[in-house]
From TrEMBL:
UniProt protein name: Branched-chain amino acid ABC transporter permease
GO CC annotation terms, alphabetical: plasma membrane
Subcellular location: Cell membrane
Originating organism: Planosporangium mesophilum
Gene encoding the protein: livH_2
GO molecular function annotation: transmembrane transporter activity
Keyword flag Phosphoprotein: no
């Protein structure tokens, strides 16, 4: 029983991490039709900025610094590189892939290729007993952060003007433009939100894994894309459901089969979902 509880909560924690990365990725693709392969760079910058700030400030402040760094980078990328290429999808892919590779190289040049140890702060370094299982508290931190981000994004999408524009733009961007609404500002807002969520994922991934590397964002981005496709392009709710499913499948398969089987199981899950529901679990809708 204790093993089942530990695996479930660890899988939920991993799924929460995937959701934080994939939520912004899903909204960016749903509204702007941009496959942003540089999204992992926002995570990496958030992780390294948090690691750097943690040597001078409390953990909460360090996380805020990491989120701010990721947000600023995301906005700069959208304004300088993505905005001129909205009508050229192939160039978008080339630019974001190149930016991702260049970003990893810059992180490696600045801090080296070796993993940097991240000392878990206070409460996150301890465990809590749940039905006999000693569960690391960083799992609860990830789950709580993901739930908070999910709730905040739902409120943004359903209760704010820009949120309504995003939802309408996901459904029919041409119609929104025809109504005289400048969706370019909404693009920038969505990129900022995506960068902030990815940077938060980077900060919390450091506590989950205990270390950070220049390639951390790229490796996690693969699973984020899988989550987005399984959940349905542009669907926040689908993204959350898919993240939980992927995290649990990966965790249980790795434990009960062998290391590496979890990753293969996730790919198999993706194939099955695409065969049964090509549009994903919930289809294309920003709700």
């Amino acid at each position: 029983m204790s093993t089942l509880v530990l695996l479930t909560l660890t899988g939920l924690g991993l799924g929460a991490l995937y959701f934080l990365i994939a939520s912004g990725l899903s909204l960016i693709f749903g509204l702007a039709d941009v496959l942003n392969f540089a999204h992992g760079l926002f995570l990496g910058v958030g992780a390294y900025a948090t690691w750097w700030a943690a040597t001078y400030a409390p953990f909460g402040v360090a996380v805020a610094v990491g989120v701010l760094a990721g947000t600023i980078l995301a906005v700069a990328v959208e304004l300088a590189l993505i905005r001129p290429l909205y009508a050229r999808p192939i160039q978008q892919v080339l630019v974001t892939v190149g930016l991702s590779a260049a970003g990893v190289a810059l992180l490696q040049a600045g801090w080296g290729a070796d993993p940097l140890t991240f000392t878990k702060p206070g409460w996150t370094a301890t465990t809590t007993r749940v039905l006999g299982a000693a569960v690391p508290n960083d799992r609860f931190l990830l789950i709580g952060a993901a739930v908070a981000v999910f709730a905040a994004l739902l409120l943004f999408l359903r209760r704010t003007r820009y949120g309504l524009i995003v939802r309408a733009g996901v459904e029919d961007r041409a119609m929104v433009t025809a109504l005289g609404i400048d969706v370019r500002k909404a693009f920038t807002v969505v990129f900022a939100i995506g960068g902030a969520a990815a940077a938060l994922a980077g900060a919390l991934a450091a506590t989950y894994f205990g270390s950070i590397t220049p390639g951390l964002g790229g490796s996690l981005l693969i699973f984020a894309f899988i989550v987005v496709v399984i959940g349905g392009m542009g669907s926040l709710t689908g993204c959350a459901l898919a993240a939980v499913l992927v995290g649990l499948v990966q965790q249980f398969a790795n434990y009960y089969a062998a290391a590496g089987v979890g990753e293969a199981s996730v790919v198999l899950l993706l194939a099955v979902v695409l065969l049964v529901r090509p549009g994903g679990l919930t289809g294309r809708t920003a709700t």
